[in-house]
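Request: Have a read of the protein record below and say how the chain folds.
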Amino acid sequence: MLISTELAGVTAVRDTSAQLEEMEAVVQNMMCSELAALAMGRDGLVADSSQACGELSVVKVSSSEEGGGGEEEMDPASLSDVEDRLLAISLALVRVGKLNDALEEYKEAAVKEVLAGIKGVLRREMPAGDEEEVRGGGGGAGSKAPLAERLRALHPDTFLTLMKRMYKVLHLILSRCANVHGLLAAVIRAQEEDGRLSKVTQGPTSPEACGKLLLASQAVLDHICDTGHQRCWRLIAVREQQTIHGTLAQFSSLFDSTVEFVASTEKVCGTSHRKHVLRAGLHAQAKSFLEVLHEGNTGKLNALLDQERWVQVDVPVEIQAMVYACTRPGGGSWKEGMKLGVQVKGEAGPAKHISLDCDKFFAVGVVTALIKMIADYISCIAQLPALGLDIVQRLLDLLKLYNVRSCQLVLGARAMHLAGLKTITAKHLALSAQSVSFLAALLPHLKDSLVAILPERQHVLLGELDKVGKDLTAHEEEIYVKLVSIMRERLDFHCRNLMEEAWNDSAKEGASSYMRGLVKEMQALIRVLVGTLDKKVVQRIMKQLLVMTSKRLVEHFAKLPLSTSVSQHRLAGDVSFLKSNLKAVDGVVVSDADLDALTAFCDALPAFA
């Protein structure tokens, strides 16, 4: 002011004003550069920040063991000196209104360091290529493949190691940036309070200006964090096809590491919708992974059903282990992935049955494969809980598919065409019944496990498991009805020529040929049922079978001209032969009450000598 007023005509000081303004600008620029240098310098603001700067630091961090050790302690005196210098410079920049400019320069430096950290990890983990940006390839002529191609060629475990080290480097950089923001925010708030006490309404130290500076500092931190997340997502997105077609263990490892990284950066940098790009992108990949898994399982299940010959197979130890895990509600056992065999004690090898609670079930090959698929879905839910509802829906679809297709193949006899079976036997029906009976018994345990794993808000679809269970039980009952129906057809077959029997031939001894054939087939059916189904189920079917046999024989006998004592004796002998031979079959109880209709018919015949 003095130069422009009282000394305005003095030639010697004519250029002093411009020189002073230029010097002021230079000093302010130097202060901005020093703030950025201090914030991103190698003596940083966290104890391990010296290891998180540039290429050299990446090598150090990558060389240390995961999860601890290998980090040099920061000298507390040096750390305090850095903080003091940064506080002084930031305070001066606030007062001269240049902190915004300093923040821009600091942002550029931090972004460069984020990119340098990423490139350093790539250079170390992928020494055969250059460190070009992941933008779909490119690059000039030469023998080196584009980075995208080399990333796709990595083994999943190698890529996981690369990302874990990258997350560690970025976490260190972002932690330091968060500390810088914390120091700047403390300076700004202190200046804001001074301005409020001094009733400053305008200028760089006014409360309004300080409030904008706080937002600007947070925006810089958000931008740095967002840059790291964006670049990490580019790397993951390049390998999308490899990731979604990998195993559940591989995908969940990458998923867990990434979610842990996002959570840790949100903890140090604060939550912001801009930082959701990595989480949202990975969530989308998880859905794609689930679709690929489900399509693969659906195709495999259909193929196995088409090839299934409905014969009993042994149950491997690992399959029994998965069933065992289902009966222990809670996600802990599933979160260990597929290493469930250790839960089964005392199993020397494959078993003849699947054990569930106190029951044992025979299994066919397709059911053991279905159990493995169910275990995969439960493991998915335990390891990817965000997709709980989607996975439960796919699980329901898989169970419904098995129920419908197995019904078509066995009850509908399509297995004769697809699998080349000559006929659908009672053994095929019994094994199919065992399969659906096992699944129906397993569903309540699955529901309990899902209730323990899923949050309450995702329990909405679990009621559908009860509906599927009812469908399976209805299918099982249809099989039992079919078994009785088959025997009815065989009975009618054997009785088709009753009118031609020599009922009045007194010289013929023993049971009639029709009855011997009928009893032989009934005994064979009962033995199949006893050897395959649960005793209570066999007895229930046996009751239906006996009642049907009794009533149907009465219908056939009523058409016979039983007008002589010889014919009545022969009929009585056939009935006695039926009863005695059925009672002789082991494993069933034949009640006379179930043959009441036949007994009453015989008792109603006229007395004979």
